[in-house]
Amino acid sequence: MKPLIKIALFVVFFIALAGILAGLYMFNKQHDDLNKVKPDYIITAVDLQKEFEENESLASSKFTGKILEVSGIIISVKPGEENTMSITLKTG
Questions:
Q1: pLDDT at res. 77
Q2: SS (HEC) of the chain
Q3: Which of 6, 7, 74, 84 could bridge to 80 as Cys pair (CB 3.0-4.6 Å)?
Q4: pLDDT value at position 26?
């Protein structure tokens, strides 16, 4: 084989191996215990809805990717997607 082809195959093999290892790492990564994590925001369901009604883009940037502790009156609890629960809170 030509040296250029050997180098190209080595690079492709190295990239594939790195991708497999990264995938295995992410698949086996443990989730944080939310009982021990402090929420970024503590808010009521009514106030959360008001924030989104007043300025949706600002509220989205403020709350997206954050841990929220939302309090309110529970209206319904239903099974959601992929072994999750969907909880609906009363907002008035």
A1: 93
A2: CCHHHHHHHHHHHHHHHHHHHHHHHHHHCCCCCCCCCCCCEEEEHHHHHHHHHHCHHHHHHHHCCCCEEEECCEEEEEECCCCCEEEEECCC
A3: 84
A4: 92
Cα separation, 86 vs 41, whole angstroms: 20
Domain ranges of the chain: 1-30, 41-89
Task: Please report, for residues 25, 49, 72, 92, the alpha-carbon distance to residue 29 in angstroms, rounded to integers and kept in the order given.
Answer: 6, 33, 32, 40
Give the whole-angstrom CA distance, residue 87 versus residue 82: 15
Show the tokens assigned to 65: 């990717």
- The HSE-up count of residue 86 (CA atoms within 13 Å, CB side) is 5
| pTM given for the model | 0.60
60-87 pLDDT, tens digit per residue, is 999 999 999 999 999 999 998 888 999 9
